[in-house]
Amino acid sequence: xxxxxxxxxxxxxxxxxxxxxxxxxxxxxxxxxxxxxxxxxxxxxxxxxxxxxxxxxxxxxxxxxxxxxxxxxxxxxxxxxxxxxxxxxxxxxxxxxxxxxxxxxxxxxxxxxxxxxxxxxxxxxxxxxxxxxxxxxxxxxxxxxxxxxxxxxxxxxxxxxxxxxxxxxxxxxxxxxxxxxxxxxxxxxxxxxxxxxxxxxxxxxxxxxxxxxxxxxxxxxxxxxxxxxxxxxxxxxxxxxxxxxxxxxxxxxxxxxxxxxxxxxxxxxxxxxxxxxxxxxxxxxxxxxxxxxxxxxxxxxxxxxxxxxxxxxxxxxxxxxxxxxxx
Length: 327
Prior knowledge:
By secondary structure, the protein is α+β, with helices and mostly antiparallel strands. Among the domains are: 92-151, no CATH class; 160-322. It has five helices and 20 strands. The protein has helices at 32-43, 47-78, 140-145, 173-183, 306-317, and strands at 14-18, 21-24, 94-95, 103-104, 111-114, 117-118, 135-137, 149-150, 158-160, 163-166, 187-190, 193-194, 208-209, 212-220, 233-242, 258-265, 268-275, 285-292, 295-302, 319-322.
């Protein structure tokens, strides 16, 4: 018996198919079917079994992706600054339970809106109580966020922050003419005053005190306006006297500590005076003072604020000269 030839051992050669993978190539002297079976074991299940597996993997991935999207949406809704819808701002007006057909805003919501206009609580042009407001708001800011805008000033008027300056009614021309006659001097007469515009009664001397012309106005601002301490109201004085009278008449200026800042008014040198304390008429006031044609003028309001420092020059800019007339 002749000896069997020695069994041939297949040689293996390793080549790089991809940078990250190694592939076993088939050698000679080995059954190709066994090699194919091994390749199948290395490459995974047969083609007919792959579809269900791939579909399952896609379902898992899709579910995971949808979960992440839902989580991000929930975080976006719950985190960060949440803006209230304009339709949900403010409160509706209510009918007065004791007066049918009369509508009022709830307490704390004092800014009524009609159409697309909101009115300050102190605005004398608010529609009559038998007109139902479209909405009531706690502040001007809330109304503006709900797409309402503040009522414009009346013809000839000016809006300073939330304070309206309007032509006085009745006009001050007659009062100013009488003052100019008594003082024998041309004076500047205001044509813009805070709303509501009535002048306090001056008395028999037609607003002349200690040879000075004094106009006094009282007005109210909306909640948040700073005027008289602990109130939304304020008073505004317009003071006029010959230059030098302020040294002997204390209500024309400050008697206590004060801060002074230079400014130009109507083309003339002037100054801001902040009266810090004392018991005079202008204590705690901010005064806009200037001299023109031998007359010293002052516009004075309680509390030194940005709004009041805007009101005073607006009043000063609206004055008109009135000459004395014989009579």
